[in-house]
Amino acid sequence: MNHSRRSRRRRWCLSLFAPTLVSASALAYVAISSGAGAAVAASPPTAAALYPALGDTAPLGLTLSSLAPGPQEGAQQPIWHTPPGAEDNRPAPQTIRRLPSTDPRLESWIAESTTGGICLLLAPARPVNGARPIGATCTASAEHLREGTYLTYQYPESNEVAIAGVAPAGATAIDVTFADGTTQALPVVGDGWSLQSSRVPVSLTASPEGSTTQIGGE
Amino acid sequence: MRARLVTTLTLAAAILALAAASAQAWVNWAYKHGIRSGESVYGPRVVLAENLVEPQGVGIICAGIRGYGLYCPPSAESVIFFAGGLVTSEPYAHDHSSFTSGFSAWWQ
User: Fold this and answer.
1) Of A111, A115, A169, B56, whose CB has the highest number of CB atoms within 10 Å?
2) Distances (CA, A) of A202 to A182, B56, B59
3) Alpha-carbon distance A163 to A152, whole Å?
């Protein structure tokens, strides 16, 4: 009697759990065969791995301030405002690093963005109309991290254009094509490149391999 | 005596925090505003330090402060233009792409 009851209970357990076990096995097979297992094994490289400049320890040459901006005070170096609690996509203050200057008229910095992208900050090395302008842009996510980014600065009432960038990972030079048809190869130094010119840049090509980017889009 | 000191300090801290918060408040000067290729759209003349421009769509929208320059991103990404301190000027946006697009923008 006891034996029979135990046997019935075993059959009842089997009938309850067997379909669950079969379903779990099938799901695991589908997940592994569709590559989900591979995605876990090979996570994409981090910004720090792609861009060694993020680990640089050279002086920043930039004042980070979380205080409300005050009047212009003829600062010796540019100031970057780091408002507390900012929720938009902007450079993460603790990751900002100076890029080596390849044009003495410009200063630029690399940073990780607050949403996992990569950022570029650009400032003219000299005041503009008594101010120290500085601009920043960041890619939205880590999706296109390898492609780097860049920023252009148009001086007021002038034909001069400044352009600086974080080069795509692995690039050694950036070939710039100007509106007048001329070209110029810029060396990539410590992940960065920069140029100031009165010629209007229209496209960029990363060397040794990389697609051509039209400045201003297609 | 001690309670009065604590109350005074707490009040002072609250006033300072409120002043800092209001001084750093972003003012929206354009919301999902249309912009044509090559067009510049200007905000009000104010005392500002920063202009933040966000694209609405795939257009490349630049952030400028009149008299201090214009920053343009490579694609439809937001741009922050910080003047380094307060200036009296106008924030503006410029469509750097070859088609009509839109943007939102804030100054502070």
Assistant:
1) A111
2) 10, 23, 16
3) 4
**Alpha-carbon gap, residue A51 to A190, rounded angstroms:** 8
CA distance A122 to A163: 8
Closest among A189, A186, A183 to A206, alpha carbons compared: A186
- Least confident range of A5-19, A79-93, B75-89: A5-19
The partner residue sitting opposite B86, judged by closest CB among A69, A132, A150, is A69
Cβ distance A137 to B50 less than 8 Å, yes or no, reads: no
Look up the pTM and report it.
Answer: 0.80
The DSSP secondary structure of A73-102, one letter per residue, reads ---SS-EEE--TT--SS-B-GGG-EEPPPS
| Chain A residues within 8 A of B65 when measuring between CB atoms | 133
DSSP per residue over B25-37, as a string? --EEEEEEEEE-T
pLDDT (tens digit per residue) in A167-205? 998 899 999 999 999 999 999 999 999 999 999 999 999
Q: Which of B26, B37, B42, B75 best tests the A interface by mutation, with the highest count of A CBs <10 A?
A: B75
Encode pLDDT of B57-104 as tens digits. Answer: 999 999 999 999 999 999 999 999 999 999 999 999 999 999 999 999
B75 in reach of chain A (CB within 8 A): yes
Q: How confident is the model at residue B19 (pLDDT cuts 50, 70, 90)?
A: very low
Strands B101-107 and B27-35: antiparallel
